[in-house]
Write a structure and sequence with these properties.
- By secondary structure, the chain is mainly α.
- Helices cover about 70% and strands about 0% of the residues.
- It is built from 5 helices and no strands.
- The longest helix has about 30 residues, at about 10-40.
- The mean pLDDT is about 95.
- This is Starvation-inducible DNA-binding protein.
- Belongs to the Dps family.
- Keywords: DNA-binding.
- One of its GO terms (molecular function) is DNA binding.
């Protein structure tokens, strides 16, 4: 049956293709985050173990929303490791890096997903696809927060605090 939801076939196809990359990036980040959850060690173990679990659980739930949006647009969602490897811009990790390297890799992964969501948002917005644009706005917000939280763990605790903002003079 033909799909008639007010978005042209060309726009639905372009949006679904962009969502497919978003799905692949999200799945790759999910897998990497879960791997790091299992394998993290060191003084930050408890903090990272819990943080990674929160992040991979959230990612797992998001995968379904992204895949179902692709289906709602009338296209099959990619669902194999091989296809994800073709589509994803996130590097996999076969080893077990030190905790700080795990954090660096996850920041890079979160930022890659943010860029993918931003690109998908632009495509969806231009097509008048508010549902996809809304989903991408939600994904950007979550991944920007995750990246910030991870990045904060890499800050040098010996650095001097930033100066307080100067007060404006009353006229």
């Amino acid at each position: 049956m033909a799909i008639n939801i007010g978005i042209s076939e060309k726009d639905r196809e372009r949006t679904a293709a962009s969502l497919s990359q978003m799905l692949a990036d999200s799945f790759t980040l999910y897998l990497k985050t879960h791997n790091f959850h299992w394998n993290v060690t060191g003084p930050m173990f408890q903090t990272l173990h819990i943080m990674f679990m929160d992040q991979y659980t959230e990612l797992w739930n998001a995968l379904d929303m992204i895949a179902e949006r692709i289906r709602a647009l009338g296209y099959p969602a990619p669902g194999s490791y091989a296809r994800y490897m073709e589509l994803s811009k996130i590097e996999g990790e076969d080893g077990v890096p030190k905790a700080k390297e795990m954090i660096r890799q996850l920041v890079a992964g979160q930022e890659a997903v943010i860029r993918a969501a931003r690109e998908t948002f632009k495509i969806a917005d231009a097509a008048g696809d508010q549902s996809t644009a809304d989903l991408m706005t939600q994904r950007m917000e979550i991944h920007e927060k995750n990246a910030w939280m991870l990045r904060s763990l890499l800050e040098d605790d010996t650095a001097e605090p930033a100066p307080a903002p100067k007060k404006k003079r009353a006229k």
